[in-house]
Amino acid sequence: MNYPPHISEKDGHLYIGEHDTNVLAEKYGTPLYVTDEQRIRDNYQSYYDALKGYYDKVQVLYAAKANGNLAVMKIFASLGAGADIFSAGELHLALAAGMNPDYLLYNGSSKTTEDLSLALEKKIRVSLDSVDELRQLSAIAQDAGVTAEVSFRVNPAMEVPTHPKIATGLATSKFGIHAGEIVSAYQAAMDAENILPVGIHCHIGSQILEVAPFAKEAEVLISVASEITDIGVKLRFMDVGGGLGIPYHHDTDPVPTPAEYADAVMPVFLDGINSIGIKPEFWVEPGRFLMADSTVLLTRVNSVKQSHKKFVNVDAGFNLLARPAMYDSYHEVVVANKTGPDYADDAKRDVMTVTGPICETGDILAHDRLLPAVESGDLIAVLDTGAYGFSMSSQYNSRPRCAEVMVNGSQEGLMRRRESIIDIKQTMKDLPWQK
Ligand SMILES: Cc1ncc(COP(=O)(O)O)c(C=O)c1O
Ligand SMILES: N[C@@H](CCCC[NH3+])C(=O)O
């Protein structure tokens, strides 16, 4: 199987960076997420450089929902990124990581008045999702005696090649304001007290492996930019939302590069702004491309069962990696203590289904994979789990969440400790009538 450069096999073991995954699993226990810092930096640099090659006013806003660990946020802060934030928690983490508030955008289709007040208090721009939200923000800004800088999220009514649950710009999606209504929304913002519209925001969906939809999105945004410039909006940024997908099927998926993305999108953007006669910043909010392949989820084999098929029962399930159960997502799996030529012979391999410990039939991490003979105690690595892995985890079945480790060259360290049963119980309360 093809691996990204920070994943390798040595002496029968799977390595991440300079580290034997078996040694890390032994030291920190399983299940365990392990992330390679240098890979995050390299992914960021390739995205940023490709866009910057076209335009000097490029800003990356890391999509914090992909992985909100403070250690991860600090890496992006050190690289100069801001963040796409979707909650007060993500806002808090972005500021704690030292990100510049100028490059944070408070997104979301359902914000509370507390969220809107917090954004104003912290001087964070808000991406509005409805005219109702505009009215609420205007009232809060008037009370606070400040001006709120905003963008609207445009719904571009676009079908995109991805799982329907993560296609966010469909005409039927809950997000954004349709192109036909967007100019009147901006007019309402121009007319509203204590509101200054300064941006356009859009997001067509996630895990898209073609560049054409992003170019089409840029066309839609340019057309909106032209119309709202005509009514007097002074655009400071155009935010195109999330980034490229990644090849989860390592050997067969197409691998669109940031350079191809930039070649498709930037000419549309540049021609558009030149003909309108404006020079807004170009913002992009990648999450998956920056994080997904930086991380492996290590999970120990509890038992193997030959039923109507061969089940490999491991200690991580959809409590820790929801993607396969939620979107039928594919992740490569490797037996991390049985790699290399000794285990490559297909005759000695078997088709196996890797299942988690959760009390649901759908708790399957990987269906029907050809793997070397697996026994209890073996270590399985689930690849490409750095985006929407830990961040979507839960305590279902009252299972404490696992630890997260970061490696960086020869260094390694815990970036999140393992939870215990105390963490599960600590928010529960004794009811007075249940003494
Ligand atoms: C508004 C917004 N921005 C950015 C992202 C990040 O997308 P991706 O991880 O595909 O780059 C998402 C998630 O789909 C999103 O909803
Ligand atoms: N959570 C989704 C990505 C979309 C999230 C943000 N809109 C996934 O795991 O693929």
Task: Describe, in plain words, how this protein is organized in 3D.
The structure is a single chain. This protein is of the alpha/beta class and 435 residues long. It has 12 helices and 21 strands. The protein has helices at 21-28, 37-52, 70-78, 88-96, 113-121, 131-144, 179-191, 212-230, 258-276, 288-291, 323-327, 421-425, and strands at residues 7-10, 13-16, 19-20, 32-36, 58-63, 82-85, 104-106, 125-128, 148-155, 177-178, 195-201, 237-239, 281-284, 295-306, 310-314, 333-335, 349-355, 364-372, 379-383, 403-408, 411-416. α7 packs across α8 (212-230) and α8 packs parallel to α9 (258-276). The chain binds pyridoxal-5'-phosphate (PLP) and lysine (LYS). Residues 63, 66, 84, 107, 168, 203, 206, 241-243, 285-289, 387 line the site of pyridoxal-5'-phosphate.
What structural category characterises the helix and strand content?
alpha/beta
Unreliable residue stretches: none
Helix content: 25-40%
Number of strands: 21
Shape: globular
N-end to C-end Cα span: 58 Å
Measured by DSSP, the beta-strand proportion falls in 25-35%
Largest sheet: 9 strands, mixed
Mean pLDDT: 97
List of distinct ligands in this structure? pyridoxal-5'-phosphate, lysine
Write a concise synopsis of the structure shown.
This protein is an alpha/beta fold and 435 residues long.
What's the topology here?
Layout: E1 7-10, E2 13-16, E3 19-20, H1 21-28, E4 32-36, H2 37-52, E5 58-63, H3 70-78, E6 82-85, H4 88-96, E7 104-106, H5 113-121, E8 125-128, H6 131-144, E9 148-155, E10 177-178, H7 179-191, E11 195-201, H8 212-230, E12 237-239, H9 258-276, E13 281-284, H10 288-291, E14 295-306, E15 310-314, H11 323-327, E16 333-335, E17 349-355, E18 364-372, E19 379-383, E20 403-408, E21 411-416, H12 421-425
Parallel strand pairs: 4-20, 5-6, 5-13, 6-7, 7-8, 8-9, 9-10, 9-11, 11-12, 12-13, 15-17
Antiparallel strand pairs: 1-2, 2-3, 4-14, 14-15, 14-19, 16-19, 17-18, 20-21
Helix pairs in contact: 2-9, 5-6, 7-8, 8-9
Bound molecules: pyridoxal-5'-phosphate and lysine.
Lysine (LYS) binds at residues 65, 166, 168, 206-207, 323, 327, 388.
